[in-house]
Design goal:
60% helix, 2 helices, 0% strand, mainly alpha
C-alpha cells in the first residue's frame, strides 16, 4: 500500500499503485457506513490518487 508519497515518487509504479488505491476506495464506498474515520481514509486515498495523477501526468486518473 502506498502510505507516504513524496516529491521523488517513481511514476514507474503509478499503474499498480493507482489500481490498488482505486480498489481500496471502491471497497470503502461499498462498505456504505461513513464514519469520520472512514471519510478521512477516503479523503486520504483520493488525495493520493490525485497526487499520482498530477505528478505522472495521467489525465484519466484525475477525476
Amino acid at each position: 500500500m502506498v502510505d507516504q508519497l513524496e516529491s521523488n515518487y517513481d511514476c514507474a509504479n503509478a499503474s499498480g499503485d493507482l489500481h490498488q488505491l482505486k480498489q481500496q476506495l471502491d471497497s470503502l464506498y461499498a462498505a456504505g457506513n461513513s464514519s469520520s474515520e472512514q471519510q478521512e481514509e477516503i479523503n486520504r486515498i483520493e488525495n493520493q490518487i490525485r497526487f499520482i495523477a498530477n505528478k505522472c501526468d495521467i489525465p484519466s486518473a484525475k477525476g
